[in-house]
Amino acid sequence: MAPMKKRAMLSATVFALLMISTVALAQKDRDDEPTSWVNFVVLRDESGKPVRNAAVIMHPVTTKGKQGKGGMELKTDAEGKANFDGVPLGKLRVQVLARGFQTFGEDYDVDKPKMEITIKLKRPADQFSVYDDHPKDSSAPKPDTPPASDPKDNKPN
Prior knowledge:
Blueprint: H1 3-32, E1 35-44, E2 55-60, E3 72-75, E4 81-88, E5 90-97, E6 104-110, E7 114-121
Parallel strand pairs: 1-7
Antiparallel strand pairs: 1-4, 2-3, 2-5, 5-6
């Protein structure tokens, strides 16, 4: 084998070994972190019935309040439940998406070895349009109107 090919193979092997050891060390660090088992229950707000096949998306939150890299998506079962064992302790951003419901999002402090989070999804609200007829709301402030003028004031002299 030519000396250049041997060097290239040796360099590739060393690089691969370095990558494998780096990944192994990162995994070891993650294995040492305390984690929690989190159970999600997703229900309909109006009836309390479970929402099946809802996407529960989890993202870590940095100390600066920004969404961290990585994440995990779970799907709820027929009882509206999904769980994950291995959520790192700390802030967790949870988003829930389900067809026919408003998107849900909230940050939680994961601080116990076992947690249950119940999420109630609402139906979408109607959008407000200036082109639709709306009943007059008596509690709404009324616009300032000038005092009505006396019709006698408008007569020509």
